[in-house]
Amino acid sequence: MARGELAPPPLRNDCFALPPGVSWTPVDAALERLQERLAPVVSFEELPLFRAAGRVLARDVMALRPNPPEANSAVDGYGFAADLGGASGEVTLPLLAGRAAAGAPFRHVVPEGYALRVLTGAALPEGVDTVVLDEDTASDGATVAFRGPVKPRSNTRRAGEDVARGASILTAGRRLTPADLALAAATGHGTLPVFRQLRVGVLSTGDELTEPGAAVAPGQIADANRPMLLSILHRWGYEAVDLGRAPDDRNALAALFDRAADRVDALLTSGGASAGDEDHVSALLTQAGSQATWRIALKPGRPLALGVWSGMPVFGLPGNPVAAFTCALVFARPALALLGGAGWTAPDGMTVPAGFEKRKKAGRREFLRARLREGRAEVFHSEGSGRVSGLSWAEGFVELDEEAREIQPGDPVRYIPFSAFDL
Ligand SMILES: Nc1nc2c(c(=O)[nH]1)N[C@H]1C(S)=C(S)[C@@H](COP(=O)(O)OP(=O)(O)OC[C@H]3O[C@@H](n4cnc5c(N)ncnc54)[C@H](O)[C@@H]3O)O[C@H]1N2
Ligand code: MOO
């Protein structure tokens, strides 16, 4: 789909359906499917620079003017024509009355044989292409003396030496950084074309959940996923919409989905993603004819329910917080980026020696909560999918691929810091 269309076409209802007969989906196949089937769903708008930080650029942007726009002085000093400073030994030049300063250009020609007081950032007047640094001169106000030779064009900046007019400065899909705003401003832009912020809802499901901090009756636990997922979305630059908690009741959940579809572009749920009696997210999406309960060959995060509800993509994350976190980073992150116009990206990892020992089943990928210490990846002491403390302990993942069976200390492993997932 072309980027930036005002009304992007709705996603197909069956865009996540698995081919018949498929049961275990390898992580890469699931990612490929998402990448193939999703496209930007947001229109774009022209935003003032001051409000564009963190937004996704909707079109390529060119420099409207060169940077710097004119040749200017890099220092406070005295300017003259290059050949005057060429001689070695002492040079004395008569000073012209007046000066050139940033924002207050000298509007006359500096005649051959004269020097002029110039300040940092001042446009070079005609007749000046070289500046000698204040600290290297002596002046009585009528003349200036310095020791030559001074290299031609010293202490000056050429017009356009940083960016030429018409040069490509920023490409569509980029999430605008503070430095990008400086570059855009310096090259003549007051506004930038950006995608509307993707609105992403977060809904926790399960009768057992209570609000964080609220009293818990027997059988209840605090909703840990919602604050985590909302803050992840916020960090990713989306408008995160808190849709609260849903009971294990199919009709109530369907009504919440309907309401969400009117308010958000995509929905993250957690819980109810597998195929048990109370797994209503996956059941509802299947009922809508649009769903695939994906059994991903992944630990943690095996059940992942993906579907489209009234045009709204739903990422049914597993309920266990570690699995919800992992699936959010591995699957929702690149998918939401695509929906929001930023394009698909894979996180950059690095190969480091293992600081641990482990046996694993072949045929599935594993993400271990990990951190780097003294150049080695250490992993959390438990792989339990409800162990939230390990998520907080970790600074990244060790990603073990499908083939890995046994890891010994010192073996090379792939470490992906959470920063590579934009956290
Ligand atoms: N018979 C099977 N049982 C389970 C399987 C399976 O393949 N066959 N898979 C297991 C795996 S792996 C996971 S992960 C979980 C995920 O299942 P659901 O997405 O259906 O999640 P729930 O059953 O609703 O909840 C799982 C667990 O997480 C707790 N939870 C849920 N939401 C939250 C929340 N917002 N904050 C904190 N904790 C939450 C919930 O109370 C459960 O303890 O299924 C396994 N079972
Ligand atoms: O997806 Mo589950 O976390 O592997 O427990």
From TrEMBL:
Catalyzes the insertion of molybdate into adenylated molybdopterin with the concomitant release of AMP. It comes from Litorisediminicola beolgyonensis. SMART domains: MoCF_biosynth. This is Molybdopterin molybdenumtransferase. PANTHER family: GEPHYRIN, MOLYBDOPTERIN BIOSYNTHESIS PROTEIN. It catalyses: adenylyl-molybdopterin + molybdate = Mo-molybdopterin + AMP + H(+). Keywords: Magnesium, Metal-binding, Molybdenum, Molybdenum cofactor biosynthesis, Transferase. It is an enzyme of class 2 (transferase). Its EC number is 2.10.1.1. Belongs to the MoeA family. Pathway: Cofactor biosynthesis; molybdopterin biosynthesis. It holds the Pfam family MoeA_C. Residues 201-338 form the MoaB/Mog domain. Its cofactor is Mg(2+). CDD domains: MoeA (cd00887). The keyword Transferase applies. InterPro entries: MoaB/Mog-like_dom_sf (IPR036425), MoaB/Mog_dom (IPR001453), MoCF_biosynth_CS (IPR008284), MoeA-like (IPR038987), MoeA_C_domain_IV (IPR005111), MoeA_C_domain_IV_sf (IPR036688), MoeA_linker/N (IPR005110), MoeA_linker/N_sf (IPR036135).
